[in-house]
């Protein structure tokens, strides 16, 4: 008999809260019970159609009061000259809060495949080259390490080829003469859900695999693909893969840490949902699950908005910790997209305040209540360099 995932139901109870009016100052956006902690800063990575620069870094205020008309996006903090088709992630190293870009769209060296933006000094720092070029890789920061996983593994070719899984340890990294030294990308074992031992016929027409969902939980990385049903786990301590569960992760894309929970787009509900994800003690496995492997417990907390306003169902989102979360959507502002160079775009930023999400409070709720929403529309324009479509490549909170 296949082992069933241990799924817990949140306890009944918890009082309903009435929606509040949109707040004007940061600590009032969410009912966290604490006004001492400052909300994280939010940075936008804007993509260009040129290589010098390939990206711009912009800082926005998620608690800015709504304006009737779109407002110009704030001035850029830095221009990044690097490869296109990167992914970006926030890393808190001993050097301070960094935004790190990793990846590329071609094996030729027309720009660095690792680039760092120091949010304190605004310095742009080229880093080490990947062992294999990765097109918009999945990036999972754990402490001072960045794990880079190929999103779409290739059996042959020069992009997304082996190694499919790498790690960059920044604990001993230094900046010398404007470059990142004393660190390098190192190969890790490939996920067993990626195709490898293929017959000659399968090699000619290899299977297409796509990483459907992923998350870094405690001391492990969880992955589900669209080719092979189930959840695989990479143990960060032993650096070994194992089959953890017969079911896929219940969300699409990455799950972002959000206090004691994770935020992700629910595969079933088609909108953003909160999850409590726990890797439990070892259980009796089914034949398809690695012996001695822990079991997976996932508790789902749907988002509820008592004011009847829309809860984000697509686009990009970023957690603001106990202050809530932000969603971002793009739409073109060009006259006819496709006939002119893409130079204008509108980015809608919506901030959602949430109720208290402490561990004690989670014991008495069934849903995560959205207390209020703020919205701001930014106008992104760059006629000199042009914009990629969509121009909003990534959103980072630090």
From TrEMBL:
SUPFAM superfamilies: Kelch motif. Pfam families: DUF1668. It comes from the Eukaryota. Signal peptide: none annotated. Residues 1-23 are annotated as: Disordered. This is DUF1618 domain-containing protein. It comes from Triticum aestivum.
